Queue: 2 jobs
Job 1
Amino acid sequence: MAEEKRKAIGILFDRVRWEEKELGRQLEIRGLSYDMIDAKSQVLPLDDSEFSSRPMKVLGRCVSFYRGLNLASVYEAHGIETINSSKVLDVCGNKLLTSQLLAKKGVPTPKTMVAFSADSAMEAIEEVGFPCVMKPIVGSWGRQVVPIRDRETAEAMIEMREQQSDSMQTIFYIQEMIQRPPRDIRCIAVGEEIVAAVYRYASPESWKTNVALGGHSEPCKVTPELEETVLKTARAIGAGILGVDLMERPSSELVVHEVNGTVEFRGAQSATDYSIAGRIVDYVVSDRSSVEERRQVVDI
């Protein structure tokens, strides 16, 4: 393919969800051609083979953490910009790395301990105190996130995880359970800007606020504290498109408990007046200096 026919943007996916369709629609509104790249069908060389037929930028939208991370790494090695970068995806995809980096950068987070055996797991739980939450270090949609309210439950969960053949299950990530209102806050940060902020409320059947599990979203005002905390988080993680999840302590202090590097935003869109996908597209296609000017022309 000749250089002049090279597509500017590729959307890398392994499942086409509402978000991927909306991102494509926003690219079309702006008169931009793009490629939909099925991650599952990719066969890529690791040597210096020519990649000039590939898009110049790839927007990573893979559901699978490891698939998206490793594809981003290969594209970057061949000079193709990926958004988010493999570095950002690596940090966001591992809760341990995320918590470690945020703590180092002074971002407020729940008290968190990590342990690597059954005996030390119980020690970590007792150090954090009851109630606490046990999470896998890799995973999304609230899978295997379990509240631990007493020693009996802790022992049962540790035993269950020990019996699984997955070595990742023997990494015990224990986090303080914040006594929050029945909601958390999801902010979508694009570069140096918060483009959406919503409260996420759990469904009556669950304590988890994930929209994918039946929760719902309502608008959240971006206060100076919220903006400062979210942008400090984004700077710590690295430039890109991030879903920053926060909780409110009884004192109203905000703490960041998770950062998503391939953020879903259908729930947030339902509580937002403008197109989140449009803001993401503006960021991806821009030279990072004319986003505001372009937004004044098209914001649908």
Job 2
Amino acid sequence: MDCVLGLDIGTTSTIGILVDPPNRRIVATASRPVTLSAPHPGWAEEDPAQWWTNVCAIVRELLGAAPGSRVAAVGVAGMVPALILLDRDGHCLRPSIQQSDGRCEREVAEIAARIAEPEFLGMTGNGINQQLILAKLRWIARHEPDTLARLATIMGSYDYIGFRLTGQRRIERNWALEGGLVDLATGTVSPRLCSLGGIDPAWLPPLVGSTEIAGLVTPSAAAATGLAPGTPVIGGVADHVASAYAAGVNAPGTVLLKFGGAGDVLASASAARPDRRLFLDYHAIPGRFMPNGCMASTGSLLNWVAATLCAHEEGAARAAGRRLHAHLDELAAAVPPGCEGLVMLPYFLGEKSPIHDPQARGVLAGLSLGHGVGHIWRAALEGTGYAFRHHVEVFAELGHAPDRLLASDGGSCSPVWMQIVADLHGRPVQVLSGHPGSCLGSAWLAAIGAGFGVDYDGVADFVSLGRLHEPDVTLGPLYDEGYARFRDLYRRLASWFAARD
């Protein structure tokens, strides 16, 4: 049986999937945890060697689950735009600097002083922000000159795994686009953009597309993983793009809300419409784009609220035979919509899109002695829902108004949360079922690149529809008012956030 292997190099775990394309069948999945390090406040780093160790273990586990199968191609997805620095021998010079890392505020300001943001936005499709590879390299030059002196190659998370598998140094084009290195007009790396980050173009390997063959598995990588030498490895894809593509965000009118530790909002577009409030990526399907937003804290915020403000409810949850989150959902469901005036700003890790304010913080406003645990939990559910609505509003302004909203990832399993989101958007929310995530998208793109004779739409056969949450239209005016108060609260506090030491 010929299969394709999909890998996802994620922030919290490395995931693998073995797919049988002709029979539209998932053969096996496996995962390993990843350690995120924060050696200083605001930093976010990981060890790429751990990703490779995970990949070797995962591939062997998957092959063991399907004896007699042959992996005909490998696809790799991963977080963007993480930064990996290699020397001439291919060794990592330091831990990765993750996309969520916040150390580059000074360097971002320096870039903004050298080029007007509207011009930068028009060139790259993305605004000037702390995710830029340009800013990260300026930080390295300032703080780690010895590292810079030994630098030979820069690349992203999934590019690194592709390099370990094939020995070929390549960078997938979405990593370069989100990193601020690609001129949208030409689709190539821009020397002018590189100069903003002090980047020597020689550090950048050739660009490769998601379904292009980037190289073949080397004998040493074969020995480490169990793959056959010479197995094609496809160029790869950004994790959020892979996940949304596999979920069906492949034509205008569909918007995916991802309820993970962070929150992602993704749409499909036939043309690039750069806006500083959003990020812009190439779609997995050639000729299309994927405007998207990322909220720094969604599920992780709820986990914090549960552990810090609501931990005393753990005993009641156990007594009722429920997990704490499900118990808190039940308490929140008993609270009237609008939370009796309680509003939460969910910016507990600062915020990425659409406000791009690393100084923003979480706020619980309007507390009274009449509020209880259910109110606090519902305020968190509504606050994150309002933040999703803010993104959808921006999409609509840019011509990407949704006909339907899809919901995926762990948070979509909460019926209470999904109903709140449907009500405050005034649109149905369709929960996806059986979506294994980015690894599926990377596997299917590998099948396309390896010539399995499948088309881009075939990935839809793997994902089914779960519960449809219809909005209660009578709540529209109440949630419109709540959303207005949510937006106004941030506007009033933005200057206070900025003035903090």
